[in-house]
Amino acid sequence: MTDLVKLRRKLRDAGLDAAVILSGVNRRYVTGFPSTAGMAVVTENSLEFYTDARYFEAAEKAIPGARVRCVKSSGDYEKFACQALVGCAAVGMEETTLSYAAYTRYDKAFEGRVRPLGELIMNLRAEKTPEELERIVNAQRIAEKALEETLPLIRPGITEREIAAELTGRMLKMGAEKTSFDPIVISGSGTSVPHGATSDNAVKKGDFLLMDFGARYMGYCSDMTRTVCIGEPTDEMRHVYNIVLSAQLAGIEKAAAGVPGKDIHNAAHQVISDAGYGEFFTHNFSHGLGLEIHEAPRMSLQSEEGIPAGAVISAEPGIYLPGKFGVRIEDILHITPNGCDNLTLFPKELIIL
Fold first, then answer.
1. In angstroms, how far is CA 33 from the centroid of its own chain?
2. Distance (Å, rounded) from C-alpha 344 to C-alpha 31?
3. Shortest CA distance to 306 belongs to which of 261, 341, 338?
4. Which domains, ranges and CATH numbers included, belong to the chain?
5. Calpha distance 203→163 (Å, rounded)
6. pTM above 0.70?
7. Would residue 131 be called left, alpha or beta, if left means φ above 0 and alpha means ψ between -120 and 50 degrees?
């Protein structure tokens, strides 16, 4: 999926002559090809991909311009890579995914030329190409359609697990590879736990029902949360819901390329704090997403680094009142130089079933 010209330029800027990529998600990013086994080697003039017989034929067809080689034993990975790396003085590898044993083995095979890739590929992945953005949007539309079809089925007595199954089944029928993550479907007082576990609890009249889920389409994730009410909410429930919605809109208004993640979070947190609920907003406003449901840009509350143009991030404030209820509303945003585009079309006004 990546622009190899851009990747090679980043390698040069980092003083690296090549990259050896072992992690499945980064292999897919660089080659566009999913597999559970393989190695990608990027040099100034070549892209090579090594895999076993299970994937060899498919990889040959799926990775244009690459030299694809079939691995017959584990030692072939190192042998083929060494052949490709002739003349390369510094070879970047993903230090966060290598065990010490693997590091020492590859460092020996590459004659001490191994260097850390650091966040190079992760930062590159943060800036989505038009093709990547299209896949994320398609994933989001699948999720939204699944929710639209599931809502009429929700009534007192249906269980959280049954709702999660309905969402999952519909997303798969509509073309999702799988879910972005196991859906979080929680109700009643369970909604006060931000990432509570879906259970066999039946939803009851007067409950809030929180659904956090997403679809994966051609490798790329969507993510959304909607909190709905089964029957009429109390005045307090309406009040809290509207505060969360106002906070989300404030964070979205702040989001733009170059703005640090903490500033976006603080814009939303200020709304919740001013309403007297600051201590009950207990997580970050946002995270990056793409091939993984959580990826760069990292949206730490301490981060001073501006968000890059092209990033896709979530917008998900919440208020969680222990033992009572919780509310979260989540959309996904595409960051632009002048602000952001909200990729989520599903309504956010409180839905009463």
1. 18
2. 28
3. 261
4. 4-125 (3.40.350.10), 127-342 (3.90.230.10)
5. 10
6. yes
7. alpha
Q: Where are the alpha helices (DSSP H) in the chain?
A: 4-13, 24-31, 56-62, 75-84, 100-109, 120-126, 130-150, 160-173, 235-254, 261-274
Angle at 191 between CA 186 and CA 194, to 5 degrees: 100
In angstroms, rounded to a whole number, what is the distance separating the alpha carbons of residues 25 and 291?
A: 7
Closest CA to 138 of 177, 168, 166: 177
In tens, the pLDDT along 261-307 reads: 999 999 999 999 999 999 999 999 999 999 999 999 988 787 788 99
Q: How far is CA 299 from CA 23, 106, 289, in A?
A: 23, 33, 11
Which residue, 319, 252, 320, is CA-closest to 286? 252
Rg (the chain; Cα; Å): 23
SS3 content of the chain, % helix, strand, coil (to 5): 35, 20, 40
- DSSP letter (8 states) at residue 42: E
Helix (H) / strand (E) containing 179: strand 178-179
Q: Which residue has the tokens 């499945």?
A: 24
